[in-house]
Amino acid sequence: MFVDTVKIRIKGGDGGNGCVSFRREKYVPNGGPDGGDGGKGGDVIFETDTGLNTLMDFRFKRKFQAQNGADGSGRNCFGKGGDDVVIKVPVGTIIREASSNKVMADLSKPSDKRILIQGGRGGRGNQHFATPSRQAPKYAEKGKSSKDYDVVLELKLIADAGIIGFPNVGKSTLLSMATNANPKIANYHFTTLAPNLGVVRGYDQDFVMADIPGLVEGASKGVGLGHDFLRHVERTKVLVHVVDAAGSEGGDPVEDIEKINGELYSYDPKLLNKPQIVAANKMDIPEAKEGFERLKAVYEPKGVQVYPVSAAANQGIQELLHGIAEALKSYNEAVVFEEDFDMFEEEAEKKAAFTVTKPEENFFVVEGPGPERMMGYTNIDTEKGFAFFQKYMKDRGIISQMEAMGLQDGDTVSICGMEFEYFK
Question: What is the 3-state secondary structure (H, E, C) of 319-354?
Answer without folding.
Answer: HHHHHHHHHHHHCCCCCCCCCCCCCCCHHHHHHCCC
